[in-house]
Amino acid sequence: MTLCLLISASACARELPELTSLIEQNSPAVVKINTMERSRVNGGGLPPQYQQEIPDIFRHLLEPRRREQRPVASMGSGFIISKDGYVVTNNHVVDGADEVVVTLTDRREYEAKVIGTDQRSDLALLKIDAEDLPTVGWGDSDDLKVGEWVVAIGSPFGLDYSASAGIISAMGRSIPNESRENYVPFIQTDVAINPGNSGGPLFNMDGQVVGINSQIYTRSGGSIGLSFAIPSSLARDVVAQLREKGRVDRGRLGVGIQDVDRNLATAMGLGKPRGALVAQVEAGSPAAEAGIRVGDIITRFDGQKIVVFGDLPHIVGQTPPGREVSVELMREGERKKVRVKVGALEGAEEVQQTSSAPSPDVGGRLGLVTSEIPDTLKQRWGVDTGVLVKQVVPGKPGAKAGLRSGDIVAQLGFDEVENMEDYDKVVKELPGGELLPIRFFRAGQPTFRTIQIDE
């Protein structure tokens, strides 16, 4: 306000961007997404082998209690990228949903099919049955600079098609997901983003989508000026893979890394802190085969600088598996170059193909497509037994229990599952209509939940 008193009002106005045209042109392609998830049936009780030990007077206390299923609704935003109805949003907006409804600005509603999801990038691709729809175009997030103006359009708190503006606060933010993986170099902005904005587009001043709003940092549940968007340079590749081949392939190096502080940089002859310090090398991994050692500091990967250690997983993950690249590193104060053939990241989420109804037999009684655990995954997570979940069929018991592709099932009911032979036998003998414990590993972390076969 003080600044505007010192100069003319017209000169002050020229310093601020004019946003009305951008918002008018792009709002029709921004959609509201409402989802519905059936809540799980609560229950309890002891297994039959233990019931005989309980006195009759107490048995009624341990009988299963059931509650009527209640639908759980949630909401988010998205945007249309093709005239024939492909819609991009966040994975967490549609994760676990039994019904997804897309609403356009003109109030038309369509039930959407989930073409594919990718938990690691928090992206999902939907399809609605419509033609000649309004669309938005992709921009290049690599061209963004800190201080540049951006605009978000979405449905915060369910308020239809709200716009907010701000600037780019930082680039390349590393924020691990719930599985402690880090494959997204987030764009940080001060744009007001609130619950309901998730999955909506972030526009540059040319009206191009340069990010997908994904997370907020808050202690109160509302925006406090820190929001994070998935960059379009990553999102375009993920969406293209989901649409083309039904999965997302990511590169893998097979190292554990940490940051380089000032003392380490001095000791290693770097001059200033930079790069990723290799703290662990997995046996048989691409890094091991290339001769990368514990104590090496990776400073470049495929020609791209590694400024902070979080840059490395971002770059490796976007490298196509099977590609041979050059890696520059510091070893005992000397610069070295090695060639690495990038591996494929195991346990990536398989896409839940719902564009056509799956066969009733897919996934068996639990709706889980499983396989033996690859040795590389056993080494990475320290898991020796179990079966790997490769696909989760929507609406089946496995999906209702919250299982995801990449999980490792180690126990069903009260039976341990060591391999596929055990799994097939146990699943066949599981009783229907009862809540049963299931133990699985997700990113190496054990978790117990319940599963019920409705038969």
UniProtKB/TrEMBL annotation:
One of its GO terms (biological process) is proteolysis. It comes from the Bacteria. GO terms for molecular function: serine-type endopeptidase activity. One of its GO terms (cellular component) is periplasmic space. It is an enzyme of class 3 (hydrolase). The keyword Repeat applies. Belongs to the peptidase S1C family. This is Probable periplasmic serine endoprotease DegP-like. It comes from Microbulbifer rhizosphaerae.
